[in-house]
Specification:
Elements: E1 2-11, H1 14-24, E2 31-38, H2 42-48, H3 51-54, E3 57-64, H4 67-72, E4 75-78, E5 82-84, H5 94-98, E6 117-118, E7 129-132, E8 135-141, H6 143-148, E9 157-162, E10 167-175, E11 191-193, E12 200-202, E13 210-211, E14 220-222, E15 226-227, E16 237-240, H7 241-249, E17 258-262
Parallel strand pairs: 5-7, 6-9, 12-15, 13-17
Antiparallel strand pairs: 1-2, 1-3, 4-16, 4-17, 7-8, 8-10, 9-10, 11-12, 14-16
Length: 264
């Protein structure tokens, strides 16, 4: 696992410019710079010593996992498939019209009550799997992919509507992903409580391994917990190792779209 950090600062003196060029063995322009670096690298260890003194900024921007870490994980968080169009935020009432018990303030919602309505017929590509912009915890597939793979996992589906024509889109369905039956251990993660509905959601930025759920006898599930910021909230999609490998084999996803889960 690599934790990637981003260094941002201003090269406004010759000493600073010479220092940063020597560490990274490359030339930099005068003025502001951005450099992404492995947290465990010698370069980061050297530059870390002068970050505060020079008024530079240092933050974690992500985590990279090796193929071995992904393929050895029992459960994985699927970060999402190729996204296609959806009317939000042009149609901000989609939460109210699509889900029960939705909150416009935090974006948290309850059970789905209506089919999704998309702008136009999507092209999902060779893998036949996709998701929606602004909706991060739903998956959509071609009907052929559903019949050939997901139906065999006892997954149901819902039709998808075309927004202007009010008819079902051709050859695309929404996969019904069940909620997991237990909660995650989230005590160490940043959270916020909505001032309107009182429900809790967690920061969307979880660096490192994703929390491992209790009870792993599933192919695919959603976390009970919501994640997001501002007016956006969504569950996280978790899959078994077997399903991850099948999704990669059938070109629905690539290994870097999965984050291994690990217990504390």
């Amino acid at each position: 696992m690599k934790v990637i950090r981003r260094i941002f600062g201003n090269l406004d003196t010759k000493d600073n410019k010479d220092f940063i060029e020597k560490i990274f063995n490359t030339s930099f322009e005068w003025g502001y710079f951005i450099k992404d670096v492995d947290e465990k690298s010698q370069e980061y260890k050297q530059v870390r010593e002068v970050i505060t003194k020079n008024g530079w900024h240092d933050s974690v921007i992500g985590t990279e996992f090796s193929k071995q870490e992904v393929y050895n994980a029992e459960i994985l968080y699927f970060v999402g498939a190729r996204a296609f169009s959806y009317p939000e935020p042009q149609s901000p009432s989609f939460l109210e019209s699509t889900y029960f018990d939705s909150c416009k303030e935090c974006g948290i919602y309850g059970e789905q009550k209506a089919d999704f309505a998309i702008k136009k017929q999507p092209i999902l590509g060779s893998g036949g799997l996709g998701t929606l912009h602004w909706v991060y915890d739903e998956l959509f597939s071609t009907y052929e992919v559903y019949k050939n793979y997901f139906e065999g996992l006892n997954m149901d589906f819902r039709p998808v509507k075309l927004m202007n024509k009010k008819v079902s889109a051709e050859n695309i369905v929404q996969l019904i992903i069940p909620l997991h039956n237990t909660s995650l251990e989230m005590a160490r993660f940043e959270s916020s409580s909505c001032e309107v509905c009182g429900r809790i959601k967690y920061s969307p930025s979880i660096h490192g391994f994703f929390p491992l759920p209790k009870g792993n006898s599933f192919h695919i599930t959603k976390t009970n917990e919501f994640f997001g910021s501002g007016h956006s909230a969504s569950h996280r999609i978790l899959v078994s190792n077997e399903m991850m490998q099948q999704m990669i084999q059938h070109k629905m996803a690539k290994y870097h779209q999965f984050v291994p889960c690990k217990a504390e």
